[in-house]
Write a structure and sequence with these properties.
The complex is a heterodimer of chains A (82) and B (563).
Chain A: H1 12-34, H2 50-73, E1 74-75
Chain B: H1 7-14, H2 23-42, E1 47-54, E2 57-64, H3 66-85, H4 92-110, H5 114-133, H6 138-167, H7 182-195, H8 202-207, H9 213-234, H10 240-258, H11 262-283, H12 286-317, H13 333-346, H14 353-367, H15 371-397, H16 411-429, H17 431-435, H18 449-471, E3 482-483, H19 487-491, H20 493-531, H21 543-562
Antiparallel strand pairs in B: 1-2
Helix pairs in contact in B: 1-2, 1-4, 2-3, 3-4, 3-9, 3-12, 3-16, 4-5, 4-9, 5-6, 5-9, 6-7, 7-9, 9-11, 9-12, 10-11, 10-15, 11-12, 11-14, 11-15, 12-13, 12-14, 12-16, 13-15, 13-16, 14-16, 15-18
The chains are: A mainly alpha (82), B mainly alpha (563).
Chain lengths: 82, 563
């Protein structure tokens, strides 16, 4: 495999395109919800876009908490071998 | 062969032939053995076969019903896929240990009594640790030692629990136990270790990433799923398990986000997936139990696929640390593709396996009105996509280009990954096939417009959260590190305490020895003075003086007699 070969993902503008495409899919899914009759077990789950914002908030929270935990939990790689 | 013949023995005895075979013959044998065993399973009639009497108790070596058959099928499918994946391995020990391991896991699944279960339970521990030690590094040796101690302890708890259960009026029959006797609590603890309950979980993250490339794939399939099987058999509907399961889904994902060793990330995500199954078993109605065991079936495949892809990366790139990898899609496009299929399956994308299995547990939790549990499981569903669905493929194959250029995985590994990927998609696209072999009849319909849109929203916006965090630089980078987990307690303070105690014991022992030695020397000196050569009691006395003393004594006696 040649080192000089350029891949589509190597160009940062293509990564941006991909990023925007995922936003496009997300918005399309929110639009799709308008045409659905939701009947969930829990009332709040039927709120518009519940799963979308839950997913987003859950992941941001997860990463921020994990990042904070790292400060407490992180040790050097050979911690147990010393 | 009659149904009385224990299925486990086909593989365990079959393993004995492996060292005698070489080359293609050995490869063919390793591939055919699981197929032959599978064919044997297909011909079995339901019922309790292979009964034996021991001390007034009935042992059942082969209990065949829908639950044991389901796990039997998937164990053998996994064994076959592993056999393909491990074809290039020359190490005979790994092949023999692998077969004994699968055989004993099967034996445990078909065991109809607690004593038979115990025997196979311990055999899985002893055979599987060889797959860790086969890495032949100091680190793997130590991790394997910790692993096998925990596993054997689980067996001891199981035996103690069984004996206590028997003593308290139960029988050795392994059916639904419930938490009625003290013995059943011990048995639950034994199962809990295998299922990696919170605080009993660390052996998993500790040992699995230290095994060989192929060994980790093997390990991921059997030990924990045997625990799930045993839990589904013995403790369905035990309410405590709902909470235990929910906790298991949530806490490992924080570790998964900051862990650098990608196989250890998968071990944490395994803990998270087991949590869904445990919660399902805790809910305990037909939908939830079907969901739990169906998810175990699907999990064995997609987790094997993910571990296979990471194993291929370790084999070719020589490292599995997120901080050293990146850009491998250029060198290993097929492995990348298969890894993404595994990632989509574990994340429960529509058309992939977990979408049709995990959702049964979610729906059961909602129908039973467990609001908090349902929210925790939903959080964990978003989290699993985040760390297993995105992080694993992203840091291994994409992210920044690490400059590593290696060969694609060996052909046999690609075939194994391809077949496993096919099964993951197959279950997602044709769920009816899996549903038809579940313990209870299934009326659940996974593909409704609402379910598909809900799930896609959850996943796409989780992906967007990841992308936004990475692009804004908030996402924590992969760093070389060890993250402290519960094992710290027994690996540092307990070890120090044990060392301190040992030192104190050694010191007091020394003092004791010294004082004993001093005393001995003193007594020895006296003894020597009295009884040594030239001592008063050690001299050879002349016979005449003996006669003289005898005469003196006799005279004294005469005198006393007359007085």
């Amino acid at each position: 495999m040649s080192e000089t070969k350029k891949y589509w993902l190597d160009r940062s503008e293509n990564v941006t395109k991909l990023f925007r495409a995922v936003w496009g899919v997300g918005i399309a899914l929110l639009v799709a919800e308008l045409f659905l009759h939701k009947h969930e077990e829990f009332g709040f789950a039927a709120w518009f876009g519940f799963f979308a914002w839950f997913g987003f908030v859950a992941c941001v929270t997860l990463v921020l908490i994990a990042k904070a935990l790292r400060r407490i939990l992180r040790r050097s790689e050979d911690y147990y071998e010393r | 062969m009659s149904a009385d013949f224990p299925v486990a023995l086909i593989l365990i005895l079959g393993a004995a032939l492996v060292p005698l075979l070489r080359g293609r013959l050995r490869a063919a044998y390793l591939l055919l053995l699981p197929i032959a065993t599978f064919a044997y399973l297909l011909g079995l009639a339901h019922g309790e076969h292979g009964q034996m009497q021991l001390l007034g108790q009935t042992l059942v070596l082969m209990r065949v019903d829908r639950l044991s058959l389901l796990f039997g099928y998937i164990f053998l499918i996994a064994a076959f896929l592993n056999a393909i994946y491990a074809l290039q391995v020359e190490d005979t020990v790994q092949h023999v240990a692998g077969l004994v391991y699968v055989g004993s896991a099967l034996g445990a699944v078909f065991a109809g009594d607690l004593l038979t279960l115990f025997v196979y339970w311990e055999l899985t521990a002893v055979s599987s640790v060889l797959l860790i030690w086969a890495r032949r590094t100091e680190r793997a040796y130590r991790a394997g030692m910790r692993y096998v101690i925990v596993q054997l302890a689980s067996g001891v708890l199981l035996l103690a629990g069984a004996v206590l259960h028997l003593h308290q009026g139960g029988t050795l029959h392994f059916g639904k136990l419930g938490l009625d006797t003290a013995g059943s609590y011990l048995i639950l603890a034994a199962f809990g270790i295998k299922c990696a309950f919170p605080l009993l979980h660390n052996w998993l993250q500790d040992a699995y990433p230290e095994a060989t490339v192929t060994g980790t794939v093997m390990l991921s399939a059997f030990t924990t799923k045997l625990g799930i099987y045993a839990l589904a058999r013995g403790f369905p509907g035990t309410e405590m398990l709902i909470w235990v399961g929910a906790l298991m889904t949530a806490f490992p994902i924080f570790y998964a986000v900051i862990e650098n060793d990608l196989r250890r990330v998968l071990a944490y995500s395994m803990n998270n997936q087991l949590g869904f199954m445990v919660a399902g078993i805790g809910i305990g109605n037909e939908l939830a139990l079907n969901g739990a065991v169906a998810h175990a079936f699907a999990d064995i495949l997609f987790k094997a696929l993910l571990f296979m892809s990471m194993g291929a990366v370790l084999l070719r790139a020589g490292t599995i640390k997120g901080s050293e990898l990146g850009g491998l899609y250029k060198s290993m496009p097929w492995t990348t593709g298969f890894c993404i299929v595994g990632a989509a399956s574990i994340s429960a994308f529509p058309l992939f396996s977990a979408f049709v299995t995990k959702s049964m547990i979610m729906v059961a939790a909602a129908e039973e009105g467990h609001v908090v549990i349902w929210l925790v499981l939903l959080f964990a569903s978003a989290g699993v996509f985040h760390h297993a669905g995105i992080k694993i493929p992203y840091f291994a194959f994409f992210a920044h280009d690490s400059g590593i250029r290696c060969r694609e995985a060996p052909l046999n590994m690609l075939v194994a990954m391809g077949l496993t990927a096919l099964l993951c998609v197959g279950i997602g696209v044709f769920p009816a096939a899996l549903y038809s072999i579940l313990p209870y009849a299934v009326s659940y319909v996974p593909y409704t417009a609402v379910h598909v849109v809900d799930q896609l929203q959850l996943l796409v916006f989780s992906a967007l959260a990841f992308a936004v965090l990475v692009r804004t630089g908030i996402y924590p980078p992969e760093l070389k590190s060890t993250n402290l987990d519960f094992d710290w307690f027994y690996r540092v303070p307990c070890r120090n305490l044990a060392r301190g105690l040992a030192d104190a014991l050694a010191r007091s022992g020394q003092r004791f020895e010294q004082s004993v030695a001093r005393q001995t020397m003193q007594w020895g000196g006296q003894l020597y003075r009295q009884r040594g050569a030239g001592g008063i009691l050690g001299r050879t006395w002349p016979t005449g003086s003996m006669a003289l003393w005898a005469v003196i004594l006799l005279l004294a006696y005469l005198l006393l007699y007359y007085l």
